[in-house]
Every structure is written in C-alpha cells, then in structure tokens.
C-alpha cells in the first residue's frame, strides 16, 4: 500500500521530467536547423578571400609572362650602350627622326611625362578621348584620365578594323603585326575603334606596351580613388603609313607610383619594314 502511494507521488514528477527533457532536445535541434550567422559569414569571407587569391595569382602569372617575354626579346637584340637607352628628343618630329640602333624602348625627357597641372586635374572625373584620323586615315593620339570606373567587365570582341599599312604576315613566333590599341582595352574598354588602333609589331604590342599597361591596371585596381593621366601617341615620319614608334606618357595623380615617358620603336627582330606602305621582308 505504501509502495503504491510512493508510485502515485513519483509518476507525475517523472512525466514532467520527460516533458522537460523533450523540450530541451527540440530547442537544441531548432537552433541547429536555424543556422549559425557567424559561421555563414565566415564561409562567405573564405569564398571572397579565395576569389581574391585567385585573381592575385593570375596577375602574378601575367607579370611573370611579361618578364619572360622581355627576357626572350632581349636575347634577340644586340646590346646597346647606356647612352642609347634615353633620348633628349621631346617633340613628335624629334622622335620621328630617331633610328633604331638596338634598344627598342628608350626613355624620353629623363622619364618625366611633363603633364601640366591642368592636365592632371581630376575635376571632371575619369575620361578618355581619341583624336580624329588624319588626312591619310592614320591614327593620331589618345588621351585619358584613367580610373577603375573606366575598366571593362565584358569580354573583348574580335578586331576587324585594318589600320593604315596593314600588310600582315605569319612569322615563326606568330604574326608580324598586331592591331595595337593606343590605350589598351583593359584600361577603358575601347576596342574596335579606328581612332584607337595602329599597325604595331608583335614586340611593340607584347611585351613592351603591355608591360606598361599592366602596371597601370594593377595600380588602378588597388583603389577607386586612384587616377592616372595617360597619353599614347604614334609617331609617323613624313607621309609613311606605319608609325616608326609610339610615345607613352603616364603619371598617377598625387603619388607618382606610375610615372614614365618612353618611346618604343615599331620594329620586329628579323624583319625589315617598309614604313611607307607596311610591306616587309625577312632578313
């Protein structure tokens, strides 16, 4: 009898304990099923970091590729004296009268781009302009105040415009000529524009022009507040249809991390170019 009374007393308590235990288990499961916001954010951060690392690796590979191409190019060119790596010439006519003597890229005006304060103004934001073709249909000049906002996101379309002097031919390393952008596509997204394309040799375009474009692109990608004043001018001699070279000037605003003034001869090792019409002969 006493035993039955004890059972009657403890039975309700046991039921309460079981109910409480069940509630605890259910709550635990519901918390887990709801997900941990901190864990979700951590996962998202890892994904973003992975994407950044992938882009950094790609950029490093591209820069290494340019370095390797420059090394290969150096082997194909005769050694030049130190004095021949720079030029006192500063005007287009001065540069047009220079002859290639073994150094494809030379420094102009002690590497000073010589932009004025007005040239370096950011008051109007980022912009790019392409001067009209001249009376012979030749490309003339391209200017820009570059910023990350101008950089394209779309894939580049094939080029169809043939610049003056376009008499291309196959070589052991690819093609003699490229349709060379004055301002590279990766900087402004300007692609099949006759005012931005010239007949340039493979070595002029890649690695020499590309190396400077990659340096500028890298700088611009670091911050949306980075600006670079930039000008690219093909240099023609007289009425010739193929440029003798191209002058590139650039200066980053406020810090001079990008700062150069160079002239690149439009030559290709192993070939003699007739600049009057773009025809060529293999040496």
UniProtKB/TrEMBL annotation:
Q: What is its EC number?
A: 3.1.30.-
GO MF annotation: an example: hydrolase activity
What keywords would UniProt list here?
Hydrolase, Signal
**Type VII secretion system protein EssD-like domain: which residues?**
123-252
Q: Which domain of life is it from?
A: Bacteria
State where composition is biased (Polar residues).
39-50
Q: Where is this region: Disordered?
A: 27-50
PROSITE patterns referenced in this protein's UniProt entry, alphabetically? PROKAR_LIPOPROTEIN
* Leader sequence residues: 1-28
In Swiss-Prot or TrEMBL terms, this protein is called: DNA-entry nuclease (Competence-specificnuclease)
- From which source organism is this entry? Lacticaseibacillus paracasei subsp. paracasei Lpp122
């Amino acid at each position: 009898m006493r035993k039955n009374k004890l059972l009657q007393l403890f039975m309700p308590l046991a039921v309460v304990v079981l109910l409480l235990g069940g509630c605890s288990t259910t709550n635990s499961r519901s918390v887990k099923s709801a997900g941990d916001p901190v864990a979700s954010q951590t996962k998202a951060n890892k994904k973003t970091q992975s994407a950044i690392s992938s882009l950094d690796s790609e950029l490093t590979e591209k820069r290494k590729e340019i370095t390797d191409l420059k090394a290969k190019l150096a082997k194909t060119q005769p050694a030049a004296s130190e004095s021949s790596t720079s030029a006192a010439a500063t005007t287009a006519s001065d540069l047009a009268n220079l002859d290639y003597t073994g150094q494809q890229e030379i420094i102009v005006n002690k590497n000073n781009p010589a932009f004025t304060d007005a040239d370096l103004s950011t008051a109007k934001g980022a912009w790019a302009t392409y001067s009209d073709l001249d009376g012979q249909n030749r490309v003339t000049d391209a200017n820009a105040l570059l910023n990350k906002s101008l950089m394209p996101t779309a894939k580049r379309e094939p080029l169809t415009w043939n610049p003056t002097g376009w008499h291309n031919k196959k070589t052991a390393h690819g093609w003699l000529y490229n349709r060379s952008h004055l301002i590279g596509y990766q900087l402004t997204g300007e692609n099949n524009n006759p005012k931005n394309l010239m007949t340039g040799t493979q070595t002029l375009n890649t690695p020499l022009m590309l190396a400077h474009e990659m340096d500028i692109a890298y700088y611009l990608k670091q911050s949306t507040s980075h600006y670079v004043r930039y000008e690219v001018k093909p240099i023609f001699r007289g009425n010739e249809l193929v440029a003798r070279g191209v002058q590139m000037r650039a200066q980053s605003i406020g810090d001079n991390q990008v700062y150069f003034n160079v002239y690149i001869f439009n030559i290709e090792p192993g070939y003699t170019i007739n600049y009057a019409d773009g025809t060529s002969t293999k040496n």
